[in-house]
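Researcher: Quick test of sequence recovery. Tokens follow.
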């Protein structure tokens, strides 16, 4: 990448202890919010699935991230004005970088097929949690959609709008920026991508390269809206494939 650290002067955590404390707090916040969502669904016999129960966790994480960045000196009024002014250019960049994601997705598909074909029963057993997680998510989405499109709408908005915005705020703007200020690109991207992947549970092995790619895009452009729109496009494709295949 560049000789001069492009994140010098970026308002973010300069102390790793605070960064890891925030990450632990986000884990607890998400677990608590999801548990409350599921408990409320059972209490009022609404039968929330894990997608719907995760929406309060996303909202809580987003509010925490906005508050942290505000405390670090970020002016949200100026940021939102800049995002609005540069939206057309950022959208074009997001579409451009989506091509890179397509290449990564195709490479992962080929690698997984080769592993399943040549790796035998051991490889297929190791890959089972990934396929089971994907099948469970597809079943939940199709179940919500078959019940009512109004029922499916909040989960789709969370996947296509809220989730990308919150995850890019936390994982790229806060976490990656903090690590990158004191390290090179690859250690920072790998660590940030790994934490991002672990937050996605059983899908972590296939999410890791995508997380690293998101860091690479953020490194090149340093435009959070580009990452948010790219992430949204990725989720649209991922959810559509799960629902259709």
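Model:
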């Amino acid at each position: 990448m560049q000789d001069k650290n492009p994140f010098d002067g970026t308002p973010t955590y300069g102390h790793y202890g605070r960064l890891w404390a925030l990450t632990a707090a986000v884990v607890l916040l998400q677990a608590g919010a999801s548990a409350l969502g599921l408990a409320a669904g059972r209490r009022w016999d609404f039968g929330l699935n894990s997608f719907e129960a995760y929406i309060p966790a996303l909202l809580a994480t987003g509010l925490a991230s906005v508050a942290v960045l505000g405390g670090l000196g970020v002016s949200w009024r100026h940021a939102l004005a800049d995002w609005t002014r540069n939206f057309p250019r950022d959208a074009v960049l997001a579409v451009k970088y989506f091509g890179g994601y397509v290449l990564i997705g195709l490479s992962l598909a080929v690698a997984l097929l080769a592993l399943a074909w040549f790796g035998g029963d051991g490889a297929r057993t190791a890959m089972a949690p990934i396929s089971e997680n994907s099948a469970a998510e597809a079943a939940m989405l199709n179940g919500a959609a078959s019940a009512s499109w109004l029922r499916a709408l909040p989960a789709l908005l969370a996947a296509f709008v809220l989730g990308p915005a919150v995850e890019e705020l936390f994982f790229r703007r806060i976490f990656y920026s903090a690590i990158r200020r004191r390290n090179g690109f690859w250690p920072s991207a790998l660590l940030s991508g790994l934490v991002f992947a672990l937050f996605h549970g059983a899908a972590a092995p296939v999410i890791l390269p995508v997380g690293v790619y998101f860091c690479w895009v953020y490194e090149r452009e340093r435009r959070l809206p580009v990452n948010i729109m790219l992430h949204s496009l990725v989720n649209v494709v991922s959810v559509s494939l799960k629902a259709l295949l």
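Residues 87-118 form the longest helix (32 residues).
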